[in-house]
Amino acid sequence: METEESGKKSEESGGSKRSSESPPDDDCCPICFGSFTVPCRSNCGHWYCGSCILQFWNYSSTSKPCKCPMCTCKIVNLMPEAALEHQPQDQEVTEVLKSVQRYNLLFVGGARGFFQKVRELPFFMKRMFQGLMDPDANDSYITEMRFLALLLSIIYRATPFDFIPTGNLGIGRVFDFSAMILVLILRLVGIYRRRRLMQRVRRLAAMEHLLE
Fold this sequence. Notes:
This protein is mainly alpha-helical. The chain has helices at residues 2-20, 50-58, 91-106, 110-119, 121-132, 140-158, 171-211, and strands spanning 39-42, 47-49, 66-67, 74-75, 78-80.
């Protein structure tokens, strides 16, 4: 009797373990509302398409973990479906899995996470400039830009160089004002690019209307 009960418990635990390693059959991705592609489970327990949650992160702050769209918990770890490890993958799936692994390393915390952020500095800078050129982006990129300016001013003070004229402002304010001017220029460039894109879309729509 005890053996049967222990067997049932082990089956139940095995079933729950398997269900936790794969998304529910009757569920869908809460971002695209479609079937899961490269399913990934967040540390808060919600499932997403790997590409969907990474794309969602692209619209958030560069240096901070993505917030779960379902519960707003910080996602510091994405766990791909266990079955993906035992299946042959095409190039697209492989790229998504690499991006997921890259995301996990960025927010692993501790010294390893810090050195990974240093390694990915060009990626962070690219994301920051792309965000600054987006008129719909939040103000977190501006804060990060000002923090970068503060960091550069500290590094400049620590070096023996003194080639930047500061006047009565001080090097900190010079870097800060320069960062804000750069932010303004990039934002204007983004608005101009969007306007050109909208004009192109209108011209294409007008041409299609004439052809009809």
